[in-house]
Design a protein that fits this description.
This protein is an all-alpha fold. It contains 21 helices and no strands. It has helices at about 1-10, 20-35, 40-55, 65-75, 80-90, 95-100, 105-110, 110-125, 130-135, 140-150, 155-170, 170-180, 185-190, 200-220, 225-240, 240-250, 250-265, 270-275, 275-305, 325-335, 345-370.
């Protein structure tokens, strides 16, 4: 009887928990608080934080044969990131980008953070493949970060990279406004933009087809991401496959978010996460995201000057691909300067351009490393 009780006691987590596990459990609880109490991207942060909680109470759940290990294989094989893009495409209105093609420039400018962090990471000791996987965090695009890290064989860094990317996506309302205000004047923040033109159905249908042909011809390695993004959007705009569009943007999307979020969170074991490399990745990711935001705003200021004051620089911050949170932040900061100013639809152009831009940046890295 005593032996049975001893065996039972040793099966509890109390005998295997380390100080590191306790720290990671505390981090998981903080992230849960931010998701539930503050509403910071709860669809992403809640499953990630719960996966983090599970793996630090029961590490075997992510090991070979564990439940979340099978989920994680779908991340490694780039299946879940691609399906996320399918859902994003089915949800996203590309109309503002089609109506104002100049938005592509703002989406491209925001990728400065990606390449800036890439070079910075190499300067502090990461090899080029690791630096590329870290730099893509600057696009504030979790699925692309996971996709690129997997393609470049950086599986050991995938957990910290994914958690950093999704955390910064969640914290966009906190990180971006100070940077936006730092680089703009109150007068610039009050600029009202002209109403966007109406986009025809033909334009909406042709857009995803043309983008797929152009981007995938130049960078074939982007096909899993850009192709799925545009397929989802074609479902939306064609109007003939409403069932597929609804499935991709609702049921399938939410299932994939659960699998991806919990499996990513489960990579954050204390042994893998609590080390100097992780701290460097988190800091570099923040620098990349801040640089991307600043570059978008500064390019927005340049476009404002060249247009004779017709473009509000705040929409440049939406060039990172955190859709639609970054566009909402542009609207919020603009409304603080002038409550009658409505920038949301104008900011959605750079925002969706940023999604395409980050996928293209990932394709550039894969081309550089011949993946």
């Amino acid at each position: 009887m005593a032996e049975t009780l001893t065996n039972l006691a040793h099966q509890t987590a109390f005998f295997s928990l380390t100080i590191g596990n306790v720290i990671m459990v505390a981090v998981a609880l903080v992230l849960m608080y931010l998701a539930i109490a503050k509403g910071y991207e709860p669809l992403l942060l809640l499953p990630i934080s719960f996966g983090m909680l599970l793996v630090n109470l029961f590490p075997s759940i992510i090991e070979e044969g564990g439940l979340l290990n099978y989920f994680f294989k779908l991340d490694e094989w780039a299946i879940l990131p691609s399906l996320i893009f399918l859902g994003v495409g089915a949800l996203t209105d590309f109309g503002p980008l089609i109506a104002n093609p100049k938005s592509f420039l703002l989406g491209a400018a925001a990728q400065f953070g990606v390449f800036g962090a890439f070079f910075l990471a190499m300067l502090i000791g990461f090899n080029p493949e690791q630096a590329a996987a870290i730099g893509i965090i600057g696009g504030a695009d979790g699925p692309t970060s996971i996709f690129l890290a997997s393609k470049l064989g950086q599986v050991e860094l995938l957990g910290p990279i994914a958690v950093a990317a999704y955390s910064y996506m969640s914290l966009v309302p906190i990180i971006q406004p100070p940077i936006m205000k730092l680089f703009t004047t109150e007068k610039e923040r009050k600029i009202k933009m002209e109403q966007l033109r109406e986009v025809s159905k033909k334009e909406r249908i042709l857009f995803p087809i043309i983008v797929t042909i152009v981007v995938c011809t130049i960078l074939p390695s982007t096909a899993p991401l850009v192709g799925m993004l545009m397929l989802g959007n074609l479902f939306r705009e064609s109007g003939v496959v409403r069932q597929l569009q609804e499935t991709a943007s609702n049921a399938l999307m939410y299932i994939v978010v659960i699998l991806l979020g919990t499996s990513v969170g489960a990579t954050t074991t204390a042994e893998a996460f609590l080390k100097m490399t992780t701290i460097k990745i988190v800091v570099l990711g923040l620098i990349a995201f801040a640089f991307g935001t600043a570059a978008g705003v500064l390019f927005g200021k340049l476009m404002c000057k060249l247009s004779g004051g017709k473009i509000n620089p705040l929409i440049g911050s939406a060039g990172v691909s955190a859709v639609p949170m970054a566009a909402r932040v542009s609207q919020k900061v603009g409304a603080e300067a002038d409550p009658t100013n409505f920038l949301l639809m104008h900011a959605m152009g750079p925002n969706v351009a940023g999604v395409i831009g980050t996928a293209v940046a990932a394709g550039v890295f894969m081309a550089i490393f011949n993946v």
